[in-house]
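Justification of resources, computational component.

The compute hours requested in this renewal are based largely on the per-chain cost of generating structure records like the one below. Each record pairs the submitted sequence with a full structure-token output. That output is archived, and it is also reused by downstream analysis tasks.
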Amino acid sequence: MEIAAILLVALVAALHAYFLVLEMFLWEKKPGRSLSGFDADMARATAPLAANQGLYNGFLAAGLVWGLIAGDPTGFRVQVFFLSCVLVAGLYGGFTANRRILVAQALPGALVLAVVLLAR
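The structure output for this chain reads:
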């Protein structure tokens, strides 16, 4: 169960690193516009907001990686903290911005948090 927890935390970290790239660097290109559904003008207008959001996703990814490489008990605590942040951010985004965020961010965060806690 512990190995599964480690792999799943790494997967959520990779997902948030992907969100960083998508929101900071690809927002005005096809992948970002496909995700947002924005036309070129709206993508250009919202790019600074998306980049800011991408930066926060990068912080979540970095925190999860820190949790993976830090020794216990710090590593475990850091993983729980950052997975909780992923869950809260996903819930907030899902209820205020786009329901898809519940599935893309909140659900993985909740499931992996449960696995990490159960693996302990």
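The mean pLDDT is 96. The radius of gyration is 15 Å.
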